[in-house]
Amino acid sequence: MSFDFRLRALSLHTTEGTVRYDFESDLTVLEGPTGVGKTTLLELVKFAFAAGEPRLATVATDAVHDVVIEIYIGGDEYLITRSLDAAKRKNVRVIDKRTGERLPDLPVDGEASYNTFLLAKLGLPDDIKAAAQKGKSSKPGSRVTFGDIFKYIYIPQYAINQDIADSRDGYYDPKRKAVFELLFKLTDPEILSMQSQVNVLNGKIDAADTNLKTVLDFLNDTNTSSREEVEEQLREAVSAQEAAREELNSLREELDPVIDRQTQAYRDLLTDAERSLAEARAVAQDLIRDRNEIDLEHRRVKADYARLERMRDAGARLANIEFSVCPRCMQSLSNRPVDEDKCRLCLQPDPVSPEGAADSYELQQLDLQLGEMSAQKEVTEQQLEKSQVAIVERESLIKHFTEVLEARTSQRVTPRLQAFSDASDRMATARTRQEGFEVALQQWDRVEDIAEKVRGLRSDQDRLKANISTRKATLAVHRDSVFSLIEQEFRETVMNLDIATVESAGFDRSNYLPIINGKPFSKALMSGGGSMTATQIAYWLSLITAARQTDTRYPSMLIIDGPRLALNTAVGTWGAIYNRLLKGVEEAPGTVQFLVSDNELPDDYEGDFTRIVFDYNNPTVATIRHPGEGQVEVIASIDE
User: Fold this and answer.
1) DSSP 3-state assignment of 216?
2) Which helix (H) or strand (E) holds 435?
3) Domain annotation covers residue 345
4) Which residues share a beta bridge with 21?
5) Helices 361-474 and 261-319: crossing angle, nearest 10°?
6) Residue 131 to residue 197: CA distance in whole angstroms
7) pLDDT band (50, 70, 90) for residue 588
8) 84, 90 Cβ separation under 8 angstroms
9) Looking at the domain assignment, is residue 2 inside a domain?
10) Side by side, which strands form the sheet with 514-516?
C-alpha cells in the first residue's frame, strides 16, 4: 500500500479576504487559460509544505498574507499555516484537527523543525544522508529533506517537458536514488547511514594511505635503514656515549687536584672584583640618570622664571599707558577730575609701582629651587666621577687576576683540557647519532601506527559493507517485485498513451528511470508531440500505481501542472492521459489523489472527478481583480 497522504483543502488569506478550495475528490482538475493563477496555486501548496523556494506570481507576493493547508498524513489530520511575510515565514503554525489543539510552532529550519515533523509522519528520521554508492566517494552525502520527497509528489510545469525529479543534475543523483529507495522500502535509514559511514571511511583510509606513503617516501629518500638495522645502530651509539661519559668523569677526577688553594683564592678574588665592577657600573648608570633628571627639572624651572619675568615686564609697560577715552563706551576722560594716586579710568587707588614686583614671592621661590638643583647636580657629578674611577680600578684589578690565573694553570691544565675536549666531542657525536636513530625509530613507529590505523579502518569498512550487503539481501525479493511492478505498469501505460516517438519502453533498475527505445531516459532523443511530457506522466502514474500494490512509503498523492501546454498537437495522447488518470482513481477509490492543473479538458472526457474552472474574471486568487489577459508574467517562462 502507498502511504496515506492527501491535501484536503487550501485557503489563502489575502488583503481583500479569504479564498478556499476543497480537494475531497480523488481527482481534481484546475482548468483555465494561461495566466489565471493555476501554477501560482500549486506553488503556494509547495510553499506551505516548505518544499523548496516556490515560483510565485506578483499577486501572491503582494496580496496573499497566509497560506493554509488541511492535510491528511499517516492517519492524522492537521491544519498548517505559513505566512508569506519575510520574517513570519520562518515558522509554521500547526493545529491538530481531530483534537483542535494548537501544537508548538515549528521552525522551517533547524532542530525539531517542520521538516522533522513531516518526515516523522512518513516514518523517517531527519538525519538521513544520501551518500553515493558507487566509486570511491569520501562524502557522507547530503541530508534528505521533505523537499526531496515532494519532488515525487509535485511535477511542476517548468520541468514536465524537461526532467524527472532533477535527474539531469549529476550532483543530485545520489539523493534522488536514495529517496526512491526509501519511498519504495528498497532501503532503510540504517542502510543509508552505514553507506554514509563507508564513504567517510573512504576519506579517512585515503588520508591514512597518503600519510603512510609520505612517511615511507621520507625514509627511502633519507636512505634510512630497516627498523632492525636502526635499532642495532642505536644500541652502538648508546654504548659509545656511555664510554665517553666514563672517560669525562675520569678526567674530572684527575683535574681537580691540579687546582691548589692559592689558585682558588685568586679565583675568589676575581669573582669579587667582577661583582664589584658590576655594582659600580650600576651606580654610575643611576647617577647619570639622576643628573639627566636634574637637568630636565632645571630647564623647566628656568622656563617658569622667564615666564614670570615677561609678565612683570608686561605689567610695567601697561602701567605707563594713559587712556584718553574709555575703552568700553568711548567717552572722553580728558576733562574728568581725578584725585592723586587714583586710576584715571576706574578711579581706584593705583597699585604699587611695577618696580616693587621684582622681589615677588614666586621669583624668590624659583631662585631657591635653581640654587638647590645646582648644588644637587654638583654633588651628583662628584659621585659620578668617583664611580667612574672605581670602575677603572676594578677593570684593572680583573685584568690582573685573570693574567695571574692563566699563568698558574696553563701548564698544568691545558693537556688534560685537550683530552677533556676530545672526550666531549666523542660524547656529543654519539648523542647526535643516538638522537638521529631515535627520530628514525619514531618514523618506523609512526609507520606501524598508521598501518594499524588503516587496517582498523578497512576492518570497520568491511564490516559495514558486509552489514549493508546482508540487509540488502533481505530486501532482494521485495526489490525485484517492486521493479517488476513498475516496469509492467510503465510499459502498459506508455502503450495505452500511444506516444508518437516511443517504440519500446522499459525501466532501468540501476538509476530508477525510464528506458525509451532502448536508451536511458537522459539520453533518449524525444522531440515533438509532447513525447517527453507524456513519457514522464506515464512514469509518475506507474510509480504511484505500483506503490499501491505493495508495501511502500510512497505518498498517495500526485500533483501535475500543465500537461496540455506541453503536449501541443498530441490530442490523442492528451485524452489518453486523462483516461489513465480516471482509471487510476476508479480502480481503487480513496487510495490515491490526483490534482491536475491544465488549460482545458478533452471534449469527450467524462467521469467521477471534480472540475474547478477559472478565467480572467474568476482567477485562482478570486479576491484580487485580475488585470486581464496578457497583463501578467507567466510563471512557466521564468528561468529556474
Assistant:
1) helix
2) helix 361-474
3) yes
4) 10
5) 120
6) 9
7) confident
8) no
9) no
10) 505-507, 514-516, 519-520
11 vs 70: CA distance, rounded Å: 9
> Exposed, middle or buried, 362 (CB in 10 Å: 0-12/13-18/19+)?
middle
SS3 at position 296: helix
Grid look-up 517488476 returns 484
Distance, in Å, from the CA atom of 542 to the CA atom of 535, rounded to the nearest integer, reads: 10
Average pLDDT, the chain: 84
How many Cβ atoms sit within 10 Å of the Cβ of residue 6?
Answer: 19
In-domain check, residue 299: yes
Who's near 411: CB < 8 A, 6+ residues apart?
none
Contact between residue 308 and residue 360 where contact means Cβ atoms under 8 Å apart: yes
Long-range contacts formed by 162-168: CB under 8 A, 24+ apart: 162/532, 164/513, 164/514, 164/521, 164/536, 164/539, 167/511, 167/513, 167/521, 167/522, 168/522
Any domain includes 619: no
The number of C-alpha atoms within 13 Å of 105 and in the hemisphere containing its C-beta is 12
- Beta-carbon contacts of 429 under 8 Å, excluding residues fewer than 6 positions away, are 240
Residue type, 369: Q
Q: What angle do CA 455, 459, 460 make, to 5 degrees?
A: 120
pLDDT at 152 over 50: yes
Residue range(s) defining the domain that contains residue 374: 258-472
227: nearest Cα among 540, 444, 487: 444
DSSP 535-562: HHHHHHHHHHHHHHTSS---BSEEEEE-
Q: How far apart are CA 586 and CA 611, in angstroms?
A: 16
Reduced to 3 states (helix: H, G, I; strand: E, B; else coil), residue 342 is: strand
- Model confidence at 357, pLDDT cuts 50, 70, 90, reads very low
Q: How many residues does the chain have?
A: 640
> How many helices and strands, by DSSP H and E, does the chain display?
13, 16
Neighbours of 320 (CB within 10 A): 7
- Residue found by looking up cell 500537461 in the block: 563
Strands 514-516 and 505-507: antiparallel
pLDDT digits (tens, 9 = 90+) for 469-487: 999 999 999 999 999 999 9
Tell me the one-letter amino acid at 246. E
Average pLDDT over residues 457-462: 90
**Residue 358: which pLDDT band, with cuts at 50, 70 and 90?**
very low
Q: What is the pLDDT of residues 244-300, one digit of tens each?
A: 777 667 766 655 554 567 777 877 888 888 888 888 888 888 888 888 888 888 888
What is the count of structural domains for the chain?
A: 1
Evaluate whether 180 touches 147 at the Cβ level (below 8 Å).
no
Cell numbers 510499459 label which residue? 491
Provide the grid cell at 159.
520541468
Q: Contact at 8 Å (CB) between 577 and 25?
A: no
